[in-house]
Amino acid sequence: MDTPQAYDVVILGTGPAGLQAAIHAARKKVSVLVLGKETKSSLFHAHIENFCCIFNVPGEEILNTGRQQAAGFGAQFLEEDVLSIIQQAKGFELQTESGATIRTSALIIATGTHRNRLGVKGEKEFIGKGVSYCVDCDGNFYKGQTVAVVGNESAAVDGALTLTGIAAQVHLVCDRLDVSDALKTRMENSRVTIHAGKKVARIQGDQEVESLLLQDGVSIKVNGVFIELGAKGLLQLATTLGIALDDEMRYVRTDKGQATNLPGIYAAGDICGPPWQMAKAVGEGCVAGINAAAFARGSNRSQ
What we know:
Blueprint lengths: L4 E8 L3 H12 L4 E4 L11 E2 L8 E2 H14 L3 E3 L3 E6 L4 E5 L4 E9 L21 E2 L2 H4 L7 E5 L3 H10 L5 E6 L6 H8 L4 E4 L3 E6 L3 E6 L4 E3 L2 E4 L6 H8 L23 E3 L10 H25 L1
Parallel strand pairs: 1-2, 1-8, 2-5, 8-17, 9-16, 10-11, 10-16, 11-12
Antiparallel strand pairs: 3-4, 6-7, 7-8, 13-14, 14-15
Helix pairs in contact: 1-2, 1-7, 4-5
């Protein structure tokens, strides 16, 4: 494994909240790393016309400009998803999809909140009866059983690999794999049965999930289906850290300084709840970046 890389502030998310946080943290002369893939931001394919002083500007252009600004102040970027976050005695240790280990004094979560649905018959009917959206949350309910994971990206692959240590048999259904070469190699060398180039037609069962029907007519007998579309999301990361969420378990709770209940962890943007506006995301990112940098400086002085 590579030697761990250390930063004062690590930011998860490359949308407007994450980029604004990076700009303000980097201007405070602390080392900053931004993790995530720009194309995954909801702003990437949008046009903005309701943000002060900007009218009908493509989201991709806004993100590219923000990235250049942050980089100009010294922020670094790594286009990888985070698979795990471990709280240490001082700071946090992150593992990325390529196997890189990153350590940081302060962490800003600005990953957005969208929970992608598969949109097939049986999905809604069997939520909590065999359909789950979080391997880390529900995986242990399927010890010694047969499960399927549906998805193309890091959340699905990492979830399937995690389940190999729990379930008797694990299937991965994906129309393609959009992960790093390192993570793809781990998957191919595991005991996961990969159904590449396949899509789900419906989730079947009586009172609980019993099988997964693919669009080519193949039926896979399973006890559970984990729908993991996209990168590792809020619930997966928050579950292991103990970050406080709202009553509906949808958004991160923060104070006016964008601090969570865990010292050193801040949150900004859509992950903190509505309204879903760039103006709100940028403002919260500014506050989070300034306060995370201050926390990191104080933490470093105390070591």
